[in-house]
Amino acid sequence: MIHRRAVPLIVLLICLPLGGGHCWAQPDDPPESLEVPDEIVVATRDVPPFAMQNGDGDWEGISIDLMRQIKSDLEEASKHKIQLRFESYPLDEMLDAVAAGRVDVAVAAITVNAERERRMDFTHAFFQSGLGIAVGSSQRRAAWQGIIEAVLSPTFLRILAGLMFAMLISAIAVYFFERKHHDGDFEYGIVRGIGAGLWWAAVTLTTVGYGDKVPKTLPGRMIGLIWMFSGLFIIASFTAAVTSALTVNQLRSRVAGPGDLSRVKVATVAGSTSAGYLRSRHIRFRSHESVELALQSLAEGRCDAVVYDAPILRHLVFQAEAGDQFVLPVTFERQSYAFALPSGSPLREPINQSLLHWTSSSSWEDTLQSYLGDDVE
Questions:
Q1: Residue 204 is part of which domain span?
Q2: Does residue 207 fall inside a structural domain?
Q3: Residue-level pLDDT at 224
Q4: Which terms are listed as keywords in the entry (predicted)?
């Protein structure tokens, strides 16, 4: 039996032929470099200020700049150069390309929602936004302009004509019975007599009742009695009709928020979250391939409002500087922008780490300020 004190000596003798130092714990292997392809195919689309092409044909914007920063981190982690190849798609085709794995990542102003999450993966959100409404300058008017338009509208003029016709019938009737009364107030010629009858009908209808003209005959007084009671209903109906005409005119010509969209012609971008919002609320709309085309339809008067992502609408309307459109100061249906990747993409985790690093830095605030100015939310 080997003595216990001899065991360390035996182990040492065994290790010596193997090179002595190899018996000690080996240092950890150096960390493996990240496996990233030499070229990353990036799907994008023209949605200023998040993604747009400059005069040289190069892509830039909030999302594009962020992707370039992430590429730098991926190059450092993978220890090799990486090329970004941008491919432009319409929105629907871009999402289909991501879901089918034909591109590595989609970078634009892509809203995260449950329907898209079932088809693809998303990074962490890098921007919080919401939907906005762009309207034509004709919607931005003073209250007195709306009142004048309502007063001159065909509906109001028809109401006024009906009231005048009722007064004329009453005036002719009272003149017919009172014209032969020698002590009466209507014993003039037909023109002056009917004119006096109109004056009497007006002051009686409005309950002013000056008393300067009063029917003297029994038939005349009967007509006066009927006219006074009828006046209560005529005035009430006239007031209601005028109020309705003013209200309907304002509803047709003014959009103050999302609650007014069901009453006007709306345009948006096909396949967008704004289209989904309108559809879920049973609001009829016309789809366009891009937000620029939707705004063009607004300028041409083919729609009353364009619903789309608020920061994009503000940027495009501001850049146009035409003054014929503006974005309402209301944001609704909050949403988050993120990058989209094919399901199970190995790039998701390294992109997330880099994205969180950059979006929490001061340089990210500078990027947002340079593109959005005072519209940074």
A1: 143-252
A2: yes
A3: 78
A4: Glycoprotein, Ion channel, Ion transport, Membrane, Receptor, Signal, Transmembrane, Transmembrane helix, Transport
3-state secondary structure of 335: strand
pTM of the complete model beyond 0.90: no
Is 87 domain-assigned? no
182 band by pLDDT with thresholds 50, 70 and 90 = low
Could you tell me how far CA 311 lies from the centroid of its own chain?
A: 10
Closest to 372 in 3D by CA, of 312, 283, 327: 312
> Taking all residues of the chain, what is their mean pLDDT, rounded to a whole number?
82
Question: What does each C-alpha distance from 160 to 165, 166, 170, 200, 237 come to in angstroms?
Answer: 9, 10, 16, 18, 11
Question: pLDDT: is 353 or 167 the higher one?
Answer: 353
Contact between 312 and 134 (Cβ < 8 Å): no
Contacts of 291 (CB under 8 A, 6+ apart): 47, 269, 306, 308, 312, 313, 316
Question: Residue 269: helix, strand or coil by DSSP?
Answer: strand
Q: What is the CA radius of gyration of the chain?
A: 39
What is the C-alpha separation between 10 and 105, in angstroms, rounded? 60
What letter represents residue 51's amino acid?
Answer: A
Closest CA to 347 of 63, 70, 88: 70
Q: Please report whether residue 334 resides in a domain.
A: no
User: pLDDT band at residue 222, thresholds of 50, 70 and 90?
Assistant: confident
State pLDDT tens for residues 106-138.
999 999 999 999 999 999 999 998 999 999 876
Residue pair 70/351 in contact (Cβ under 8 Å)? The answer is yes
| Spatial separation of the C-alpha atoms in residues 181 and 198, rounded to whole Å | 18
Angle, alpha carbons 70-76-78 (nearest 5°)? 100
Give the chain's end-to-end CA distance (angstroms, integer). 81
Residue 157 lies in a domain: yes
Least confident of 42-56, 79-93, 199-213, 334-348: 199-213
Cα torsion through 356, 362, 366, 367, rounded to 10: -20
CATH value at residue 226: 1.10.287.70
53: helix, strand or coil: strand
> How many structural domains compose the chain?
1
Residues sharing a CB contact under 8 Å with residue 92, sequence separation 6 or more, in sequence order: 270, 271
